Structures are given as C-alpha cells and as structure tokens.
Amino acid sequence: MEFEKIAKSNVLIMDGAMGTMLIAEGLRTGESPEAFMLEHPETVQKVHSDYVAAGAQILTTNTFGASRTRLAEFGLGDKVDQICALAVGLAKKAAGEKAFIAGSIGPLGVFLPPFGEMNIDEAYDAFSEQARALESAGADLLVIETMTDLREAQLALRAAKSAVRIPIIAHLAFNEADRTVTGTSPDVGAVALGSTRPFGIGTNCGGKPEEMVENIRRMRRYWDGPLSAEPNAGVPTITD
Fold it and tell me: Contact at 8 Å (CB) between 186 and 150?
C-alpha cells in the first residue's frame, strides 16, 4: 500500500486536535463532536483544510467517539456507518492528494472488567464495527488513540486487525508520571502492543511535548517498527 511504503521510509506530520478546534467553532461542552458534524459538516471540513494548509500529511477523522457504545449516549448508536462515512468523506475532500486519511478510534468510555461492567464481547464487536466502517468509507489507515487502559487498547487492536486490511497504529496515553491511568509504563505498553504486530505504535495526549520525547525513547527500546507521537500543546488548567 502507498501509505505503508511512504511511512516506513519518511517522517510524516499528523494534524492536531479536532475537539478544541470545534469548540472554537461553537461545539458546546458535553456535546458529541460527531453529532455536531452531522449538523455542521462544513465546519469539520474547514478544520481539516486548515490542517492541510498548515502542512499536515495525515488527517485524523472526526470519529474519536464514533463507536456504537459512545454514540448511544447521544441517541446515535445505529449511525456508526453513516457517521464514519461522512467523517472520512469530509477529510478526503480537504486532503485531495496532499494527505492520507487516518480513521480515529477512541476508547469506548467505559471500563472493562474487573473495573467496569462492559461485556468483553460487546466491546470487541463495537471496535470491529467502527473499524470496518472506517475502512469501507476509504480511510488509508486506522489510529487507535488516547487509550488509558492497556487491556482496552489490546482489545481494540485485535478487533481492528480481524476486521480490516489497512494499516493500524495503536496509541497509549501517559500521564506526568509516565504511566497510563491503569498503571502501564511506556516500556510495558510497547511490548504488549507490539506483540500484536500493528503497523505502528506510539502515544498521544497525556503531557507536554518534552515529556513525550522520553516516552517515545522508552518505547523504541522494545519496538522496531514505525513510531507515532502526538503530544498536547500543554497541560490544561481546570477553572471552576
């Protein structure tokens, strides 16, 4: 595939956050970015276009919460295919021939056993469904991102690999203590994710760019494939 060939021999620049850009354009706190996209597709396409203009070579779709599980919270649980198709289509229109399209898959928003009550089979099916929808819509690759539970990241990766043929990158999110919320270090994360042999692994969200550099160095010790790093611009301050 073209993406795999280029990514294995070049450094590619991904885009930045979608949520904060949409908030600046009117997305309300607690509102679904995917639901917002159904009403304001032109706004999402503009965000993608702005990132292309800024030099992004990979655009991430507005589907972070487009699993059946998360969409159900907004009464959209049966719209996975529709939302993924729209999101990929908007990104492709903005990209033209200048950027690849990465289908974004985020956490399901619930903890797996023993911490939570989410059924493992249901979680697996939700990840598989979203992965298939993104591939069918024309995504060049998948990015499983902002995973704070290693078990959920592994489940999402296995489900996606069984459902699609396009490359998959799997990200964990580490805090300032260089651990995920459930206690996984970059070293352990690299070994665990790497054992499933995705196209690439890496980290996003979490901390500042300088903190992520060391996490990527630690992951490199245990992973010889492509690495992906998407840091925050900084750590947000909570007010009121």
Answer: no
Lowest-confidence region among 78-87, 132-141, 155-164, 205-214: 205-214
- The whole-angstrom separation of Cα 189 and Cα 195 is 10
Cα 182 from chain centre: 19
User: Helix 41-54 and helix 80-95: axis angle, to 10°?
Assistant: 40
Q: Are residues 218 and 179 in contact, defined by beta-carbon separation less than 8 angstroms?
A: no
What's the token pair of residue 181? 């919320």
Residue-by-residue DSSP string for 2-42: HHHHHHHHS---B---SHHHHHHTTPPTT--HHHHHHH-HH
One-letter amino acid for residue 201 of the chain: I
Q: Which residue type sits at 87?
A: A
Q: Tell me the pTM.
A: 0.95
Token readout for 60 is: 């991430």
How far out from the chain centre does Cα 150 lie? Answer: 14
Closest CA to 45 of 101, 102, 92: 92
